[in-house]
Amino acid sequence: MTALAILLPTTVLHATEYHVSISGLDGKATPFKTISAAAQIAQPGDIITVHEGVYRERIDPPRGGTSPKERIVYQAAPGEHVVIKGSEVVKGWEKMDGETWKATIPNNLFGKFNPYRALIGGDWFDRNKRDTHPGAVYLNGHWLTEAKSLDDVLKPAGEHPLWFAKANDQNTTIWAQFKGVDPNQDVVEINVRQSVFYPEKPGVNYITVRGFTLEQAATPWAPPTAEQIGLIGTHWSKGWVIENNVIRYSACVGVTLGKYGDEWDNRAPGAEGYVGTINRALANGWSKQNIGHHVVRNNHIYHCEQAGIVGSLGAVFSTIDGNDIHDIHVRRLYSGCEMAGIKIHASIDVINSNNHIYRTNRGIWLDWMTQGARITGNLLHDNATEEIQWAQNWEARVPGGEQDLFIEVNHGPLLVDNNIFLSAYSLNNRSQGVAFVNNLFAGAFRIVSHDARLTPFFKPHSTEIVKLHDNPCGDNQYYYNIFASRCDLSGYDTARLPVHMNDNVFLNGAKPSKHEAKPLVQSAIDPELKLVKRPDGIYLQMKFDRTLADHTGALVTSEMLGKAIIPNVPYEQPDGTPNRIDTDYFGKKRTSENSAPGPFANQSGETIHHKVWPKKTPANEMQNKELKATADTAP
Fold first, then answer.
1. Domains of the chain (ranges, CATH numbers)
2. How do residues 344-362 score in pLDDT, each as one tens digit?
3. Does pTM top 0.90 for this prediction?
4. Is residue 423 within a helix (H) or strand (E), and if so which, with residue range?
């Protein structure tokens, strides 16, 4: 780095690539020993390349780039496995009775934040009659489960080994069950840092984080009314790219695209409280010019106990594409209203596309302000299956609280097209201005007749509020969808706003609404939907009836959809150009003369076998190869 570049940090004269190696030395430019040391010197346009090894640190980037072309890039060296952890190894375990061991850790290991003293909690959080800490204990990479009491840990270990901690002013003592292993011989780690990659200050823009394994962080609860700190997060900024990473083992959230913090954090629950949060955000620079425009793509996100991806207000104008998200909120130690594979407040012009989401409590949850958003080409299945319902509090869950898609108190326009929804509960809908086109639904529906909460709508493609409005049922459109088995659309029969439904297919007992104009009802046909896992991916097997191929029509366009009634805004793309649903789940072209129902344009034979994950599309084929090179398998 030249002296002139140091004097003018926002002017990129000569982009520099800095290297980081576990054998390096901080204070020297080539290579550094820690990523944080390289971050302190990197300027817009520079690249930080990290070489193979385990780095135990929290990266707090002091600055970002100045534009999409002059960003600061953090990347794993090509073909090298780079792990960044929020944990530290613990030795000196003392054996107790049975399979229980004890370790005493000086509190200076934790610094200012001790995750075994702090409690998870905040707005919309339900502690489930127990305390839960953001700390964790890991045996050979996989976490144990926090117990309710020390007595539980002193008992014989069950299927899911337990840990428990007590902390005083000097030390933290942890008891843990290790079945058949000596924790002093195996790798035992504990959470030490709250995050792995997160800027302390907001407004650190244009950063790329690529190719890492990021794991084991003591993240806090991330409600929409507070600063949202994730294992990796953008912190009220603009223009990040988070791609091709493995992101796992977060006490709460994996990726946050959320808001800043202020004195109102966790003090503004309820609809009126959140409206206050929105107004304060507008006063703090919430606009298309300053916030959002992030890209989160081709990441493997799992073992996060609140959500895979969360964003309150800070995710506007972003794209979330090609992510593999699973095992989210499966232990159920706590509950609340913010758990999902993807949970976004204010999905203004946000694209959720080509994601694979399974073994979560909810797949995609878009809450408030979806104006201009699109959900397209996603695969969702096995959300809230029996295999993950083993937590102690599971019997207390709210019936029907798990589904593939939850769209809550939005006025639209929102376009939902070419998705595959295969869980037992497909849709929970209490929103208007939604168009469902060419989807496959296999689960039950919940259609809410009215929600009295007042939520905003905006001028098109902006954060400028026009008005607040309540949420009556209706202003939903359904075209060329396939419904199977549990689907029942009769909840729309009493809708207060107009409903338009044409050319949908109803199989194996699925029930249309009275508003359906030209349904194809084949109650005796069971599509026998089945996902089959093979060495090269996941295949959807579906029995095909020739009558489906003959049930075709014109392509769905913005002109056909018109405007969402309440905001009086057209169904158009984020750049203002019209929508035209002329491709299918795989990106293959549909024709204007022959648009088959469901997510697949080409259907033939008596049984369909489509490889639905990883997806093969022109846009993401290269990204899938990069993801495979960086991801490792779940324990």
1. 3-68 (no CATH), 87-191 (2.60.40.1180), 343-354+401-615 (2.160.20.10)
2. 999 999 999 999 999 999 9
3. yes
4. none
